[in-house]
């Protein structure tokens, strides 16, 4: 056992490192200065420029086929690129949903002409895509959506509302799940489209989160016309297309990095005086530190197991399905615990230098436990796909959507 | 990235698993639970025939000369089956202690006997109802004579020899040494103890002027023991991972078959989420155990920290899976006839026998502080 690259991987890592050194600035050891740049109002512009540079060099989506600007490479090489890129101060995150979920869905269903038109600008950061699935009454149960698309000649007329749409305020295109037939059971009446987010009748309103940020949006559709040529898959096959999108959720080997972790908690515990001495000597504190350390290590090492399978050209096991379940709860609980160590002052926004980072975890953890699959849905997925337990009883499975009781 | 076992190691694992599936079903574990036997002799003999006791013993001493990774995969299968055999005692603790601290003469005498299964070794550390610590070891050794009482000693009745933590006089940790004592002598009395896990028999050993010899240098006992426990923590973590996985699947299988309110209880989220949590803890434990195994193989500087992490994670995973397995079974899971008890008992035994979670969490943080200071 070792953590070493194969000769091919090592050579690639060297190449990537050299390219990054030549084209980007390496992160400093000072966390604060690394963070400062993330508040840059020019961030989107800079992110697009970086994406273009990356795409030109062939690093943007290495696993994609050559015809779409990829290299047809093994996923391990893409991971190596990401590992190296994490050490540099580059703006990321705007393109993950588009390139990770929307464009792969397009590849499965769009025409060759459409692919020729849309894939390259997406890859190069010229156009950004969003995913319009969730609705106010359809979150975890996304097949319960109500946004209607009705046929009108060569077009479809769309009316309804989407929610939690990340990046809709800066996106150019989106893939949209609609209900085209309410007279059949809910999974059967869905159809997927893609659309221009600047189409008349599309209105984007940001949602302010409890963290104060506004990364999500509500998107309203009022008589929006979408050409039938922009339908993805057959009429009524939208659920199948949606599963294609969801299956393409990015390789679960990447994780939000740079957050506070056990080291910072230990630092805080060394600086904190409790009634019976410094906190780091307190057994309760030590127990907590040990438990979170075991989780942090466990997640890192679990990713290494997944990478090992990729490196060996095998299909990874289901072990990476635990990652968000553990990481999100740890983030929230550790943030709250660190605040507790500061006493009443743990609530202060400005006066305690260490507080901000832990408060951000405590708040962010609450969102992270929901976004991209709630704790509960993820546990269902582990139980059903890994442990082979039955799916939940679905009382609405065979009932026509428009005959369902309540709010559907 | 090469953070997994090799094909050969997986083959060995499958071989041991298949053997234990055939020769050590739960009925065998139950037989030892209910009967007077010290262990399942035919299972132990089968493992001897496979060469398992000599896995990490050098070929020069009649062993297979394999590395820690091979013993890790074996440990996982032993743990999975709850096999009532002197594995942790003889194959892990006694063998590793001899390899770590034994003189050439001691190794030449005992390692071949261990490898061939002609001797069973154990360790005798605790002296009654207190967690193990450097202060308060009353068993004394001097002038080649051993005096004192050790309990509980796993496989104390079965063992041929024991490695005993003794007081040789002096300050703090330096007062402690390890002594090797042949148990087949007049100065040794063995008394069976009733425990919460009768599938692994325990004894009280009383030494009255028993003949013994030092294992390792005088005053080095605690230091060697810490290293020994680190290595054992990694191997035991694999046994715990194997047990946790078995308990999880036992609960899953029962949940699929048991009907309540018109459907299988496996379809209720209360059950699904509980077992998903078993899986989460299991994978955290498995990943930490792998890293422990890697450090054990390399003799890496990170071993003490990795061993503590493996131990903490595996103990948590097995304790949780074992108790929720009973809970998933409901009333039937609490009956004597159910097999759920084997994991519940074994999980607790393995949790306590090397020191409990509280002690290991404390050790973990101490080691983390040391690493961060370095």
* Assigned CATH class of the largest domain in chain A: Mainly Beta
Low-confidence stretches of chain B: none
Overall mean confidence score, pLDDT of chain B: 97
How many separate structural domains of chain A? 3
Oligomer: heterodimer
Average pLDDT rating of chain A: 91
CATH superfamily of the largest domain in chain A: Butyryl-CoA Dehydrogenase, subunit A, domain 2
Number of strands of chain B: 9
Shape of chain A: globular
Describe the strand arrangement of the main beta sheet of chain A, using strand numbers: 1-4-5-8
Task: Tell me the helix content of chain A.
Answer: 40-55%
Q: What is the correct CATH architecture of the largest domain in chain A?
A: Beta Barrel
CATH fold-level label of the domain at 222-373 in chain B: Butyryl-CoA Dehydrogenase, subunit A, domain 3
Per DSSP, what share of the residues of chain B sits in E-state strands of 2 or more residues?
A: 5-15%
The share of residues in extended strands of chain A comes to 5-15%
Distance between the termini of chain B: 26 Å
What is the second-level CATH architecture of the domain at 222-373 in chain B? Up-down Bundle
Radius of gyration of chain B, taken over Cα atoms and rounded to an integer in Å: 20 Å
């Amino acid at each position: 056992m070792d953590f070493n690259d194969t000769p091919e991987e090592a050579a690639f890592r060297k190449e990537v490192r050299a390219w990054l050194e030549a084209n980007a600035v390496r992160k400093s050891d000072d966390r604060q200065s690394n963070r400062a740049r993330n508040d840059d109002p020019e961030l989107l512009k800079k992110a697009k420029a970086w994406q273009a540079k990356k795409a030109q060099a062939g690093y943007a989506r290495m696993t994609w086929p050559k015809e779409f600007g990829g290299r047809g490479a093994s996923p391990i090489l893409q991971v190596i690129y990401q590992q190296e890129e994490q050490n540099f101060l580059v703006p990321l995150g705007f393109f993950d949903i588009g390139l990770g979920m929307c464009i792969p869905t397009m590849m499965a269903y769009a025409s060759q002409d459409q692919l020729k038109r849309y894939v390259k600008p997406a890859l190069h950061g010229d156009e950004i895509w969003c995913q319009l699935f969730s609705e106010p009454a359809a979150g975890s149960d996304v097949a319960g959506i109500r946004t209607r698309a009705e046929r009108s000649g060569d077009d479809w007329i769309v009316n309804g509302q989407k929610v939690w749409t990340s990046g809709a305020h800066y996106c150019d295109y989106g893939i949209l799940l609609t209900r085209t037939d309410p007279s059949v059971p809910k999974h059967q009446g869905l159809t997927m489209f893609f659309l221009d987010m600047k189409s008349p009748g599309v209105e984007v309103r940001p949602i302010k989160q409890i963290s104060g940020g506004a990364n999500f949006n509500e998107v309203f559709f009022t008589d929006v016309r979408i050409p039938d040529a922009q339908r993805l898959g057959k009429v009524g096959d939208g659920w199948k297309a949606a599963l294609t999108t969801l299956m393409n959720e990015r390789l679960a080997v990447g994780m939000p990095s740079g957050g506070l972790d056990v080291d910072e908690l230990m630092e805080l515990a060394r600086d904190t005086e409790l009634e019976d001495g410094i906190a780091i000597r307190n057994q309760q504190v030590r127990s907590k530190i040990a438990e979170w350390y075991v989780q942090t290590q466990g997640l890192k090492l679990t990713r290494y197991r997944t990478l090992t399978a990729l490196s060996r050209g095998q299909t990874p096991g289901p072990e990476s399905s635990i990652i968000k379940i553990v990481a999100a709860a740890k983030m929230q609980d550790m943030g709250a615990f660190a605040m507790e160590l500061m006493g009443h002052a743990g609530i202060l926004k400005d006066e305690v230098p260490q507080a901000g980072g832990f408060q951000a975890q405590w708040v962010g953890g609450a969102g992270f436990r929901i976004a991209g699959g709630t704790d509960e849905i993820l546990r269902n997925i582990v139980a059903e796909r890994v442990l082979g337990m039955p799916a939940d009883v679905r009382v609405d499975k065979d009932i026509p959507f428009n005959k369902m009781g309540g709010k559907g | 990235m090469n953070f997994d076992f090799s094909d050969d190691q997986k083959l060995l694992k499958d071989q041991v698993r298949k053997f234990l599936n055939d020769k050590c079903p739960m009925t065998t574990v139950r037989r030892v639970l209910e009967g007077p036997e010290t262990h399942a002799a035919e299972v132990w003999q089968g493992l001897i025939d496979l060469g398992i006791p000599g896995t990490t013993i050098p070929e020069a001493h009649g062993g297979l000369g394999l590395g820690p990774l091979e013993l890790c995969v074996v440990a996982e299968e032993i743990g999975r089956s709850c096999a009532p055999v002197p594995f942790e005692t003889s194959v892990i603790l006694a063998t590793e202690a001899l390899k770590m601290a034994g003189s050439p003469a001691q190794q030449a005498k005992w390692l071949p006997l261990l490898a061939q299964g002609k001797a069973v070794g154990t360790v005798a550390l605790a002296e009654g109802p207190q967690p193990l610590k450097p202060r308060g070891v009353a068993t004394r050794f001097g002038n080649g004579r051993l005096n004192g009482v050790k309990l509980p000693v796993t496989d104390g009745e079965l063992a041929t020899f024991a490695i005993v933590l003794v007081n040789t006089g002096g300050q703090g940790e330096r007062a402690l040494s390890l002594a090797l004592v042949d148990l087949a002598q007049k100065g040794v009395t063995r008394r069976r103890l009733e425990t919460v896990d009768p599938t692994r028999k325990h004894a009280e050993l009383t030494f009255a002027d028993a003949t013994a010899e030092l294992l390792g240098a005088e005053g080095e006992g605690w230091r060697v023991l810490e290293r020994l426990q680190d290595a054992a923590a990694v191997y035991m973590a694999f046994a715990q991972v194997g047990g946790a996985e078995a308990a999880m699947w036992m609960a899953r299988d029962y949940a699929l078959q048991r009907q309540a309110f018109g459907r299988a209880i496996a379809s209720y989220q209360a059950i699904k989420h509980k077992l998903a949590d078993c899986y989460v803890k299991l994978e955290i434990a498995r990943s930490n155990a792998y890293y422990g195994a890697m450090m054990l193989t390399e003799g890496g500087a990170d071993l003490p920290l990795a061993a503590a992490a493996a131990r903490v994670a595996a103990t948590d995973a097995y304790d949780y899976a074992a108790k929720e397995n009973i809970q998933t079974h409901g009333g039937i899971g609490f009956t004597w006839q159910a097999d759920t008890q084997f994991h519940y008992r074994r999980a607790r035994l393995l949790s306590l026998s090397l020191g409990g979670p509280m002690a290991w969490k404390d050790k973990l943080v101490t080691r983390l502080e040391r690493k961060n200071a370095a």
